Amino acid sequence: MGVCSARLTEGPVGRHLVSLTIPMIWGILAFMTFNVADTYFVGRLGSSQLAAMSFTFPVVMILFSIGIGLGAGTSSIVARAIGVGDRERVKRLTTDGLILAFLTVVVLSILGVLTIDPLFSAMGAGPDLLPMVRDYMVIWYIGIVFLVVPMVGMAAIRATGNSRLPSLVMIAAALVNILLDPLLIFGLLGFPRLELQGAAIATVIARAFTLVVALWMLHFRLHMLTLAWPGWARVGRSWAAILHVGLPAAGTNVIIPLATAVVVAMIATYGPEAVAGFGAATRIEAMTLVIFYAMSAIIGPFVGQNLGAGKPARIEQAMRLSVCFCFGFGALIAVLLWNFAEPLARLFSDDPLVVTVAASYLVIVPISYGGAGVVMIANAAFNGLGLPGKAVAVSVTRVVVLYVPIAYLGSRLMGVNGIFAAAAFANLSVGLATYLLVRRACRQRKPAEAPDQVPETETV
Q: How many structural domains compose the chain?
């Protein structure tokens, strides 16, 4: 397979978007089952265990966000190199991206293990929940290499315009996790009963599988890796180009779980059942938004290849089609969740308060899912354009300027439902403005001369 074939620069835009998105839907849907399966089986242990795992969700999302950021940086410059048609640069950038990811996770693992108790205590986890949180997160931090490195590898594969291979890997890993979860959590078929530790171990084993497969595909099938060492100067330039997009992209994604951590602390004042209900609802939400996640995963490679090939009109057309779909499909999701909120919540807990909180979230927030989808896709497009600063500005406005302050006020005036209403308001108000911003950026952006060079600083 020729990795330098810029397959996304020719042919109908809509057909490319559909053909790329459909495999990613199944892949990300499978990927999401990691959290849903863990939540379901841990919920069978009791409300305390579910609450403990809910406290870990914002931190786990921060780790995901770092992987997403490094993957976005790698995907952006690799896609542009493919658009230009430079095969050797594609191999160099992919290899350097994986090295950078590995070095990053070594540091994160050490820092994470050392800060478990003070971090989660500050988030509101009491002394009864903290030991369970520690059991879960120590394993997560030790296994983080199996999370971040394959995420970067899969992002490089998507940069070629191939979303099928990453999707198949995610599906296989999800099946491994679903199989291992009940065995390790409940101690079935002779396995030890590990409870929360079992959930974490199952996830780490499944992600180790993705690392092995990703490296095999990149090296032996796609020939996107190189063993040649060009010297630290060239590697440093690659890292600088990756981090030019990767650091802001990671920051953009980290902002959301950081805000979620603040919101969890607000919700914790209403009791562990409220935290458990919020955790269950956000996992259901992630499953319903899988199409938006899939579109945001493929829009970056599409934008990068067409930017490298000097075809901004195709990028603008892709954004118009994506925005129309987001608002239409978002409305459909809202209607479905309004009608099935309580039955879905009962899948995760029999506790009446947990069900009430989860159902309230699923009635209030979904009205804004169209706006949230636009923000996700537009931010991915900004990264593909090499304009990560704009994505950061959008996320800061939505989360820091609007969501968290209004959530605090809403909590004071309306209780936990006021927090949920704040999320809906922030999503809707920022969605349309973000589309207008990315449309203007598409018209103004010029192709980068060299994808491994850091672009000029953009104005936000």
A: 1
How open is the CA angle 129-142-121, to the nearest 5 degrees? 25
Exposed (0-12), middle (13-18) or buried (19+): which is 54, by Cβ within 10 Å? buried
- Which residue range(s) make up the domain with 423? 11-444
Residue 459 lies in a domain: no
Are the C-beta atoms of 301 and 74 separated by less than 8 Å?
A: no
Tell me if 70 sits within 8 A of 152, measured CB to CB.
yes
Is it the case that residue 1 has pLDDT exceeding 50?
no
CA separation (Å) from 134 to 277, 308, 428, 445?
21, 46, 37, 47
Model pLDDT, residue 458: 52
Token look-up 């075809």 returns 311
**What is the model's pTM?**
0.76
> What is the predicted pLDDT for the residue at 392?
87
| Residue 55 burial (C-beta neighbours within 10 Å; 0-12, 13-18, 19+) | buried
454 occurs within a structural domain: no
Structure tokens belonging to residue 144? 């983080």
Contact yes or no for 107/155 (Cβ under 8 A): no
Count the neighbouring beta carbons within 10 Å of the beta carbon of residue 335. Answer: 11
Q: Is residue 5 part of a domain?
A: no
d(CA 297, CA 21): 8
User: Would 4 be classed as within a structural domain?
Assistant: no
